[in-house]
Structure formats: C-alpha cells, structure tokens
Amino acid sequence: MDRGKKPGKFLGGSSHKIYMDLKDVIREQALQYLPAKSLFRFQSVCRDWKLQISTPFFAHNQSLSFGSILGIFCQAPGERPLFLSFDVNSCGVPDPLLEFIPEPVRVLSSSSGLLCCQSCSGEKAYYICNPVTQRWKKLPKPNADHGSEPAIVLVFEPSLLNFDADYKLICAFPSNDFDDAIEFDIYSSREGSWKTSGEICFASRALVPTSGVYVNNVVYWKVQNGCILAFDLIKDRSQRLQGPFIAKGTLGNMNGKLCLASLDHRSLSLYVLANVHSNTMQMSSHVKMWEEEHIVLDSGILGGDVADRNVVFVGGRVLVIQFGSSIYSYDLKTKETKALSGLITYEKWRCVPYVNSIVNI
C-alpha cells in the first residue's frame, strides 16, 4: 500500500518542478516574440526579466523573432512625423517626432525596426535610426545625385549568425549620362560606403518615389506609365514588369510575394505577382503574371467619394486606408476595421510601415 502511494507524491513533486521551469521558459523563449513597448513595461516585473531584456543577445533574438507591422509613420511635406499605432497598449515609440536626431528629418523607408530618414535642409544627409532605442547613424554622402525626392528603399534582414545590423539602402535615380534611363546606387553598412551599380534600365519613365518595396532579394518601384521596375540585388539586374495598370495602386509584400492593392467602388482589388516569366510562355498557356482577388471591406470605409479613398499600405495581413482626413487599418484575416487617426489634412504625405523592434545599430 505504501509503495502504491509513492508514485503520486513523486508526480506531485514533478508537477511542481515543471511549473517552476515554465517561468524560465517564458523568460527565455516567449519574451522575444513581444513588441518593444511591451518589453520595456515588462522590465518592471522582476530583476531577472529586466536583466534578460537588457542584454544585446536578447535584442538580437527579438529582432529575429518579432516582425509584425504594428504601426505606421506618416509625414506630410514640411511637417513633423506622426506615428499611428495599431495597438497603443503594446506598440509605441518614446519620441514619435524623431527629435533625438540632431536635425529635422523626413522618414523615407523602414525595415525590421530601422528607419531611413533624410535631413530636411543642408546636405540632405541620410540617417539610419531605431526610434525605440533612439540611436542613430549618419551615412556618408552618396556618389550620385538622388534628386529632391529619392526613390529609396531600406533593406534589413536580421541574421541568426550575425549580431551586427547589416543593412542596405537602394536608390533608383535618373541617369545623368543617358536620357530616359534609371541607375541604382547602393549603400552597404558592412562596407560603410556607396556603390553605383553597373546596371542601367533604359526606356524607363519617372518612378513614383514613395512606392518602393522589398520582396525576396528584389526591390520594386511603380513607374508612372503603369509598369513596375524590379531590381534584383543578387543578380544585379533590372527588369520591367507589366502591372495591372492601376493608377492609384499601392505595392506591398503579401506572404513573401509582391502585391498591388487598390480600391474600387465596392471592394479591394488585390493583385499578387505569380509568375514574372509569363510573357515567355507559349501562346496557349494559361499561366498569368498576376493573380487577382477581390475583398469586400467594411461599409464604413466604402462609403463616400471613391476619389477620396486610397490604399497607403498593404503587407502581411494588414491594410491601411486613407479615407478623406481619416486613417483606418483593416485586418485581412479577422476582417476587423480600426480607426487610427482623423488628423490627416494633407493630400501628399508618405506612409511608412513600422516594426516595434529593439535591434541595435
């Protein structure tokens, strides 16, 4: 009888031991999947959590583990940046105006928690910063003239084996040597310098500078004639793609594929790049370059003048729409619509998605 009771006591002790180990599992394995604002709040839980969150190794793991878009930076010409959070309780930055940078800047691009900004006056210098840690770096002057509205894209992909935040800036600019041609200037943080690619894309019209997006080693921009310009970072080659020819369409990254989203009278039209080589297929082939999907949105967004609505960001499972002076986010999975702001009073403004990361630079 006594022998039969011992296993029960042993199991109770084992259960208690598992419970104690679970606290360590949460600290070591779960915290890294949270946004930065939540992590800073959780530093007050206990000394062990504070020490864990403050280590460079944890910052590296969080940049690898957390990649959700939880807000956008909005900025009109001549105005200060405005940060709109999808969830104010968990995602935010201590200085949305970016006043920790030594001069006024405009936000141009973002990637995995880092922002690319440009000074508003003087030499128009580029800055890379993390708005959470308020750390920044001023980049050297480019080799080429990027123009007053640089079509620039920041590319930062955290690496498991590399603790340094290695990033690149890719800028497509009009060629000074050839008419109707586009060249590409690339900055590498690893090399600390700019390099102009030998690739030149001829017979290209002006790019839409705010349209740049990065998807799987390729940077894409909208061209004003309706095409899409692609620049492959691995092959160092450019290509023009025939787009769905939507005047107000917005490029984005949808589950690792290039997409283009626009609003019509009653729904969202979403085009996903399926096959860039469809134009080389035989005439009887049914392979299409773009796959089209229509999504019916909330009636509150669909109301009003069509010309007054515009998709300003699409990526992952989130859609951001400007409706007059209001900004809405729409979750493509849960179908939830959320009002972010009603303060936008400018037509020409840039919208940059943001990941709440504590990555070091």
Automatic annotation (TrEMBL):
<dbReference type="InterPro" id="IPR001810">
    <property type="entry name" value="F-box_dom"/>
</dbReference>
<protein>
    <recommendedName>
        <fullName>F-box protein</fullName>
    </recommendedName>
</protein>
<dbReference type="InterPro" id="IPR056592">
    <property type="entry name" value="Beta-prop_At3g26010-like"/>
</dbReference>
<dbReference type="InterPro" id="IPR050796">
    <property type="entry name" value="SCF_F-box_component"/>
</dbReference>
<dbReference type="InterPro" id="IPR017451">
    <property type="entry name" value="F-box-assoc_interact_dom"/>
</dbReference>
<feature type="domain" description="F-box protein At3g26010-like beta-propeller">
    <location>
        <begin position="106"/>
        <end position="239"/>
    </location>
</feature>
<feature type="domain" description="F-box">
    <location>
        <begin position="25"/>
        <end position="56"/>
    </location>
</feature>
<dbReference type="InterPro" id="IPR036047">
    <property type="entry name" value="F-box-like_dom_sf"/>
</dbReference>
<dbReference type="Pfam" id="PF00646">
    <property type="entry name" value="F-box"/>
</dbReference>
<dbReference type="Pfam" id="PF24750">
    <property type="entry name" value="b-prop_At3g26010-like"/>
</dbReference>
